Amino acid sequence: MKRLTSTLSKWSKQEYGDIFTKVKEFEETIRKSEKEIMTNNTDALRQKLHQMNATYIRYLKLEEIILKQKTQLQWFQEGDANTKYFHALMRGRRRRLFLHKICIENEVWIQGKEQIAQAACDYYQHQFTGQNDIIDERILQYIPTIITPDQNEMLQAIPNIDELRKVVFAMNPYSAAGPMALGVNFIRQGFFPSTRGLKQGDPLSPALFILGAEVLIRMLNSLHQIPNYKGFFMGPKGPQINHLRFADDVIIFASTDRHSLKLIMETLGEYEHTSGQLINKSKSHFMVPDNTSQDIINNIQECINISQKCSPTTYLGCPLYIGRQKIIYYSHLVEKVSKKVCGWQARILSFGGRITLTKHAIQYIPIHIMAAISPPNTTTKYIEAIIADFFWGRDQDKKKYHWASLDTMSLPCTEGGVGMRRLTDICTTLQYKQWWTFRSKNSLWSQFLKSKYCQRAHPVAKEVDNGQSLIWKYMMRNKIKVEEHIGWTINSESCSFWWDDWLGVGALANYTTGISSLNNATIAHFLTNGKWNERKLRQQWPSQWPEVVNLIEHVVHEVRVISIRWKTPSISNYKLNTDGSALNNPGKIGEGGILRDSNGITVYAFAIPLGEGTNNQAEVQAASYGLN
Question: How many helices and strands in the chain, by DSSP H and E?
């Protein structure tokens, strides 16, 4: 090794020389050449300078590579190509997934590759063979007609078996589920056609779940059109929230009205009867506030025949609870991180590989939960302790000494750290984003919070009060810092005159004491035909604030008038103009349109309510109805 090191050192000096010295020499040579060009600018000198610059950049790159190798900095930025670790990971996964034997009917055990593969093919062939049930198509009335008859005919065309086989076997054979979602011990086995439709117990793809759930969601939304149905909403002007859904997990919000609960159960029963998908009542439950009387609880159980559950419950990995936040609600999150770390071969990995997995895998596990709600500080400390133990390693059953704190490791690589993020910093960042989303987007979540907490006051003017949710308290705590970086334009005239920063120097409420008459005023209140109405301004502002009035008067509000002219169609042709919109988006939708001839005479016009949906759905349905 000593002889090899000496030989490589001699070769490096003969091939490249002393790189650090050459970098300094090139810097001095380029500096002299630049001065020479300033006095004698010729093509030959410019070409010579370009060549020296190219060589100088090459040696700078070599210098950077040598310094990285000496400091091992690339481990912290790029990890390491540890093929031994990945081979061990693949071997462990194959051992877990390999089927040595399976149990079929009558408690018979089957062993061997070919026997197991044949049993799997026989099972699924029997599963997809049988008689089709007659489907009740009445629920299709809840789905609006959007596609044209020609498109519908094309979609209804049945592909032949050769086309299906070609598509199936064109799928990636190395994907997790195999080309047919029927990989047996990592080998493709068999091909058979399905001779019937779907039924309860069939393995469904996410796409089919979405298509089926779309019908259910439209059926639930249609309940709001029934006059005596009492749904769940926050205040008389708040959004009517009917459900939350992701794939086959559905949360339905309802009142305690007996008739309304029966309507919901009838809707679910109709969907079960038509689709063949059954609600698993053993896994379903309902939740009510702690102060709900026992009579109401008994009434709910009698109507829906589903058991009650106390909080918390879990939806999409996030705990849903009533009351105070508790550490035990997030125990599954700590357990998930711990299992992930324990499944890795840490002893095989270098420090560079460990920090790469930590930054790009472990720390992203709790991200989706922290984006919705911040876990307690104790929970984040538990997770960070697990991460630190994984990074520094263990000696048998003992933890190794931690040579640096998490605060030091969270610094950038250029400042002596390894670029690891603190979970508390991630939580704070996501809390800032929640306030930004609440203020900038008119989402259902934003409408709900405004209806619950901001019915009579602007969000910036609100203060924390007892009994408010933890998310709202975090938003109130961080709003001042986030509002410093939010600016508003006055082109839409809808921003708050008093609380929004439309001047570019902060909200007016920060400079003066409050005027109650301006709390809910918008910019449009003080504009007339695109110009400031000075009379209204001076009526609202005391005379001792002339500097503020002058500041406002110098804010220019540009109004562009765009002339729009309806152009008549050519002779013997007609022109159709349609429009559709939603209230609250999504919400109640409607459509309208007008058909005129080449003389501009109205031939036909329509305006129709459509139920529940989004702006885009209303636009498409309006155009489709007009064309039909």
Answer: 22, 15
CA dist., res. 270 & res. 201, Å (int): 18
Question: Distances in Å between the alpha carbon of 164 and those of 70, 199, 234, 414?
Answer: 57, 21, 50, 56
Dist CA 201 CA 188 (whole Å): 23
For residue 251, what are the β-bridge partners?
244
- If one counts every other C-beta atom within 10 angstroms of the C-beta of residue 277, the result is 19
The residue with tokens 């051992």 is: 95
pLDDT of res. 562: 66
CA distance from start to end of the chain: 84
Mean pLDDT per 10-residue segment, the chain (628 residues)? 74 73 81 79 80 80 66 46 54 71 81 82 72 65 78 83 80 52 49 52 62 81 85 74 78 88 90 81 86 89 88 84 86 86 68 76 80 88 86 76 82 79 89 91 87 85 85 90 85 77 79 66 78 73 57 55 75 88 79 89 88 81 85
> CA 521 to CA 502: how far, in whole Å?
13
Beta-carbon contacts of 442 under 8 Å, excluding residues fewer than 6 positions away, are: 584, 585
Q: Which of 307, 308, 332 is nearest to 318 (CA)?
A: 332
What does 108-138 look like in DSSP terms, one character per residue? Answer: -EEESHHHHHHHHHHHHHHHT-SPPPPP-GG
- The most distant pair of C-alpha atoms in the chain lies apart, rounded to whole Å, by 99
Which residue shows structure tokens 């939350």? 244
Tell me the CB-side half-sphere exposure of residue 570, using CA atoms within 13 A. Answer: 0
Beta strands (DSSP E) in 290-330 are 313-315, 318-320
How many Cβ atoms from other residues are within 10 Å of residue 60's Cβ? Answer: 14
- Global pTM value: 0.61
Nearest-angstrom CA–CA distance, 265 and 267: 5
Pairing of strands 531-532, 527-528: antiparallel
> Tokens 């705590």 identify what position?
477
Cα 258 to Cα 231, 280, 303, 306: the distances in Å are: 11, 22, 7, 14
For residue 181, what pLDDT is reported?
A: 45
**294-297, Cβ contacts within 8 angstroms, sequence gap of 24 or more:** 296/256
Q: Which of 347, 345, 355, 348 is nearest to 72 (CA)?
A: 355
The tokens for 140 are 């299709």
Give the closest residue to 144 by CA, choosing from 591, 595, 596, 606. 591
pLDDT value of residue 552: 58
Q: Which residue in this structure is represented by tokens 């949710």?
A: 469
Q: Residue 380 corresponds to which amino acid?
A: T
Long-range pairs for 507-511: beta carbons < 8 A, 24 or more residues apart: 507/460, 507/483, 508/548, 509/460, 509/461, 511/548
CA distance 610 to 590: 5
**Per-residue pLDDT at 592:** 92
| Residue 435: per-residue pLDDT | 92
d(CA 289, CA 292): 6
**CB-side neighbour CA atoms (13 Å) of 626:** 24
Q: Tell me, what's the pLDDT at 177?
A: 47
Q: 551 vs 25, 523, 537, CA distance in Å?
A: 59, 15, 12
Measured CA to CA, the distance from residue 439 to residue 459 in angstroms comes to 8
Residue whose token pair is 């000096």: 13
Tell me the β-bridge partners of 110: 102
The answer to whether the CB of 226 falls within 8 A of the CB of 263 is yes
Contact 306, 286 (CB under 8 A): yes
